[in-house]
Write a structure and sequence with these properties.
207 residues, disordered N terminus, mainly alpha, 6 helices, disordered C terminus, single chain, 0% strand
Length: 207
């Protein structure tokens, strides 16, 4: 066999367009799956915030009023405000995924051919990224406050033998911890999407 024939076959270091399209489709499907799962989790989280806000108003506040526990009554009002705010921020976090996802899908589809448009859209995406992270940090702070208050209530009601109130306070503590974890996952996903934007632009520029 003449090996010289194979040496004449041209080799290219540039990525194949078919492979790029396939990888882009797979990446898009993966991100869409993650986003759908995240939206479902946020929906469950928002419903849980609503339930515990009702629990604080209908169960905790009457107990604190009846037993003249002024400091805990004030804390209950604050936790109610925290829960309502957290529910709103959870909804905003879903809306906050719009810019990075739209920019990612637009850039992987059109590449640098729309560089000027992508540049403007990228600035908007970066601004949304900053706002989203600021709101995410605020939501984590609220979750930490909710966890701190609910843990203290659970210790108290468990010692007093109020099983219903103790169980719900412990569940509220678990919700706060889960909210912190979900916010961290949200940060990881949006950061990964932002990095994919840059990587997609570089790959498309090589084609």
């Amino acid at each position: 066999m003449n090996l010289a024939l194979f040496s004449k076959i041209p080799h290219s270091d540039k990525p194949n367009s078919r492979d790029i399209n396939y990888n882009s489709t797979m990446a898009t499907s993966l991100w869409l799956s993650l986003i759908i799962v995240y939206i479902i989790l946020v929906g469950c989280q928002t419903g849980a915030f609503g339930y515990f806000a009702t629990f604080v108003i209908k169960d905790l506040r009457p107990y604190f009023i009846e037993n003249e526990m002024e400091s805990d009554l004030i804390t209950a009002n604050e936790v109610f405000a925290y829960l309502v705010t957290s529910a709103v921020l959870a909804g905003l976090s879903v809306i906050g995924l719009y810019f990075p996802c739209l920019f990612y899908f637009n850039y992987t589809t059109n590449g640098p051919r729309l560089s000027k448009k992508c540049c403007l859209f990228g600035c908007a995406s970066f601004f949304a990224f900053l706002v989203r992270n600021a709101l995410g940090l605020f939501a984590i702070i609220l979750a930490c406050l909710i966890a701190y208050c609910s843990w203290g209530w659970w210790v108290y009601f468990d010692a007093e033998g109020y099983d219903h109130l103790a169980t719900n306070c412990l569940a509220l503590f678990g919700l706060a911890i889960a909210s912190i974890a979900l916010r961290c996952c949200h940060y990881v996903v949006t950061t990964a999407i932002s990095k994919s934007q840059v990587r997609a632009g570089r790959i498309m520029a090589e084609v």
